[in-house]
């Protein structure tokens, strides 16, 4: 009985918040570019005010090294806020359009970018601060209101986010609702004007079904199996450094991180040797592996999932070349390289989302494309090559949310370019103007001339008029 009562109370609470935002959104819609810029600046100040608490919360949740949180969570968010502050006034300008058809007297057309309304932002656990809050930048720029649902898997971050948002915004403009699956399910029943979800394809399908009930538009930022392709012309030292550094970051729990490496057989041994050298320099400076500078796997189920992928790959013939050490007590897995990995193994069919890295050898660029096309379109694709013809071949013969050449994930940090996936790896785009467009309705406005020579033409009776129209169709 108590649980049922709490459920009713919660449903009513979020309905009240939603209704209040629905009403207040019409007020927010009228705010000027200057007022929205001031809100963004206030948001920036609040983020900086809590920067140390952000790092502490993420360390408490999964032992994220503080330097990583300052850089990829706080620093990246500040960069995105600054970019939007510099450009939002331009984006909000009415856009004059030259009409495709002009009657004799002419008319004026333009596009007005208006807010969609009330937005639900459902955040992830892996890079929770940045990935939950960067859509809010677009919400503020567009003139929307928002309810934010942070991940329950990072409870310290969730509580901190609740405090930060309450310190910066009134509840009828932006608020945080904490909780788990039950709370998210209740939120998804509401008729939001837009839903911005970051997470897994499995949950994204649930979100889409719920959105369909209210015809809510959606942005889905998912993931997939991002390949890193190494060509024989590549600088292998830099390729290994950048691939392994990124794979160790956040213990590989990043949606656009490398899921497998494609490399010529002749370079495979050197790749393994250089990986060992990198890991020795980065994590073994004091003798044993330095777990202090290395993240935990988020929870036991995900630790067990990664162990299952590893065990299945080994059972199907994969060789452990580097790592393979699972510390269940610490909930940490050392960076692991696997060779001779079967394409039919689970690790090549599921997104890994952890520090396991299959190495697949290839003989031709056509084989590379065949392997990539056999897997769902990824969020990112990485080409290490100094051969422009090879690079362009890979880009033109594959599809992904974004591409970075000779580095990892760089396309996912620049607010000037779109960020998002394709089909299984996502729907819609975020960042900068693309995020602004995602949160707005491009409203067509036509100002008709008062004097139309043919104004009376389509007034019945129509006798003889069909022949006139027919004669004009040439």
Structure notes:
The protein is built from 15 helices and 18 strands. The chain has 474 residues and is α/β, with parallel strands linked by helices. The strands form 4 sheets. A 7-stranded mixed sheet has the order 10-13-14-9-8-15-16, with helices on both faces. The chain has a 6-stranded mixed sheet with strand order 5-4-3-6-7-17, sandwiched between helices. A 3-stranded antiparallel sheet has the order 1-2-18.
Tally of extended strands?
18
Share of helix among residues?
A: 40-55%
* CATH structural class of the largest domain: Alpha Beta
Oligomer: single chain
* SS field, number of helical segments: 15
Strand order in the sheet with the most strands: 10-13-14-9-8-15-16
Shape: globular
Question: Regions with pLDDT < 50 over 5+ consecutive residues?
Answer: 1-5
Mean pLDDT: 95
Question: Can you summarize the main beta sheet?
Answer: 7 strands, mixed
Compute the number of structural domains: 2
- Derived from helix and strand composition plus strand pairing, the structural class reads alpha/beta
Radius of gyration, in angstroms, nearest whole number? 26 Å
Share in β-strands: 15-25%
CATH architecture of the largest domain: 3-Layer(aba) Sandwich
Distance between the termini: 74 Å
Can you tell me the CATH topology of the largest domain?
A: Aldehyde Dehydrogenase, Chain A, domain 1
